[in-house]
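TODO from last week: model Glycosyltransferase.
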Amino acid sequence: MTEKNLLMLFVRNPELGKVKTRLAASVGPETALDIYLHLLRHTRDITQHLPLDKVVYYSEKVEQNDLWPAQHYHKKLQYPEGDLGEKMKKAFEAAFAEGYTSVVIIGSDCPQLTPEIINQAFEELKTHEVVIGPALDGGYYLLGMKRLYRDFFQDKRWSTEHVFPDTIADIERLHLSHTLLPYLSDVDELEDLQENWPELG
């Protein structure tokens, strides 16, 4: 069977007061928006030249003339109902229904993410059923699989330190072969910002 890879990017529309709200409590909404735009540009810069299909899933509305060039990215709207897990599950469902054989999802919160790590994720999916990139805060910055496992998206305490360990528990309970990518840091709090971008902190 021919391999068909898809990278899905989950992003928020960069609107004042609606992004990086935990960070905004420390630095204010304007600075939080500026930081989020930095993160979006970083995510674009590391993904736009990867030789695979890519789709940007927007939180509120699809933007046409923005920092995601249409020649490199398909554009879709996240499923409107439910929590983050439901939205991600629907995106994976759509990808596999379109015939993709390896599907990876990332967010836009990880300034340490590189093209090499994303390529590694797809390489690992050649020999494993699941690949996961753990974040230091207890979540994950990347999740990849070769078929849909609904359990990964159900009964999760999203945006908490429980997401990664609970997902690993699902993987082990389902007896799936998996591999971990390097632990990286997301930017959600002021401390994360000072670690990753001291000049902005």
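Done. The mean pLDDT is 91.
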